[in-house]
Specification:
This is Response regulator. By secondary structure, this protein is an alpha/beta fold. It contains 5 helices and 5 strands. Helix 3 links the parallel strand 3 (about 60-65) and strand 4 (about 90-95).
Length: about 140
């Protein structure tokens, strides 16, 4: 597997961005594009699950706090579906209320990774690399 950043041997990821904030949607897609990845945007957990039912994504970048169905509810539903279908969708959770215990709490909830808002390109790239190397690209 190549790097997840830009470059000759880069792995271009197709990422589902689930966030209800327009600014964060734009920021996430701009950062992903600058790293050589593509992004599709939805604004709540229900729409994220619907998008995942229709097509495959390499990774989901999911905000914790969204209307209708929040990110943790969507993650729990996704992990429950995976017990039936045998697949594993990589999910990086995103939160604006970063706490020291977030990584352990989100990992226990089934998240593969975690980044805090506001998104920063270096932190996002590090977490993308870590999560994609932890789970070999399928």
């Amino acid at each position: 597997m190549g790097d997840t950043g830009t470059g000759k041997n880069a792995l271009s990821l197709h990422v589902l961005v689930a966030d209800d904030d327009f600014f964060m949607q734009r920021l996430a897609t701009i950062l992903l594009n600058s790293l050589g990845h593509t992004g599709v945007v939805v604004d709540d957990g229900e729409k994220a699950l619907a998008a995942l039912a229709k097509r495959r994504f390499d990774l989901v970048l999911m905000d914790i706090m969204m209307p209708n169905m929040d990110g943790l509810q969507a993650l729990a539903s996704l992990r429950k579906q995976e017990q039936v279908n045998g697949r594993h969708q990589r999910v990086i959770m995103v939160t604006g209320h970063a706490e020291p215990t977030d990584r352990a709490r989100l990992s226990a909830a089934g998240a593969d990774g975690y980044v805090s808002k506001p998104l920063e390109i270096d932190a996002l790239e590090r977490e993308l690399r870590r999560v994609m190397s932890w789970h070999p690209h399928e």
